Amino acid sequence: MTKHVSNTSMLPPSNVAFILDPTKPVLSHGRDMLAETSIERHTHPRGQLLWAEQGVLRVSGDDAVWVVPSTHAIWIPGNISHQVSSETHTKIRNIYIDPSYIVRKKDKNTVMVVMSSLMQEIILRLTDDTKILAESNTKRLGLVAIDELEELESSNLYIHSGQDPRLQRLVSHIVQHSQDTFSLTELSTLVGASVRTIERLFKAETGMTFRQWRSRFKLMNALSQLSEGKSSTAVAHHLGYKSVSSFINTFKSEFGCTPQQYVVRR
């Protein structure tokens, strides 16, 4: 059932994620998140396929961050800590799988997957509160979803966020306020560390300098905007690049193709 929520900074996770019942292999839940809202960091026993029918999600795990457009979804195994945020109005559609069912054995941790048309339609049917399904139909449809989830292609588009609490707080702030242009000095002050310490942590725990990390995070946001149909020019200006050619060159060096080639491939 879809739940419309108020514009608060932090929202609780869905109750159905905590229900253990092998006779109900798949439970579903949908909600609309208004701009600048987040679901508090949490874990739950059921595995979760998190998908935005509309909008872009930012998902933070223990040591990684994903920017997830509607062409993709996030598979989160049971008992894995995560936080979800949205910069714009977003329609979230979830399915939760009982731990008695083995799903994606090769993926022990959170992974982004490419959504298929079949999976999209299954989730839309399961989360449509205008069409009440019989329990037997819900179970059969849920089992089809489990089979389809196994076949979805994985994507390695993520960025490390490190393990140090100060670094994670800084990364969390950037993820939840992706349009802010705070300097590293300002961000370091926010988390109670020196610039030198944060620079060292970025290099040691993400393998990148702060500048490199922020550049890749901007490019991940570019992927989501391109997937929504925005032009390279519009995305470049939105992300603050000095020129479209600079954006295209940076994108190509990072992902091995131009923005429009990426769109065609997707």
Indicate the structural class. alpha+beta
Shape: globular
Percent range of helical residues: 25-40%
Biggest sheet layout: 7 strands, mixed
The number of strands is: 13
Q: How many helical stretches? A: 9
CATH architecture of the largest domain: Sandwich
What's the CATH class of the largest domain, please?
A: Mainly Beta
Can you tell me the CATH topology of the largest domain? Jelly Rolls
Q: Output the radius of gyration.
A: 19 Å
Strand fraction equals 15-25%
Order of helices and strands: EEEEEEEEEEEHHEEHHHHHHH
Q: Average pLDDT, to the nearest integer? A: 88
Determine the N-to-C terminus distance. Answer: 30 Å
Enumerate the strands of the largest sheet in spatial order, edge to edge or round the barrel: 1-3-10-5-8-11-12
Unreliable stretches, pLDDT < 50, 5 or more residues?
Answer: 1-8
Domains (count)? 2
What's this model, at a glance?
The protein has 266 residues and is of the alpha+beta class.
Report on this structure:
The chain is α+β, with helices and mostly antiparallel strands and 266 residues long. It has two domains: 2-155, Jelly Rolls (Sandwich), CATH 2.60.120.810; 163-265, Orthogonal Bundle (Arc Repressor Mutant, subunit A), CATH 1.10.10.60. It is built from nine helices and 13 strands. It has helices spanning 117-126, 135-151, 165-176, 184-191, 195-206, 210-227, 232-238, 244-255, 259-265; strands at 2-4, 10-11, 26-33, 37-42, 47-54, 57-60, 64-68, 72-76, 82-86, 90-97, 111-114, 154-155, 159-160. The strands form two sheets. Strands 1-3-10-5-8-11-12 form a seven-stranded mixed beta sheet. Strands 2-4-9-6-7-13 form a six-stranded mixed beta sheet. Strand 6 (57-60) and strand 7 form a beta hairpin. Helix 3 (165-176) crosses helix 4 (184-191) and helix 7 crosses helix 8.
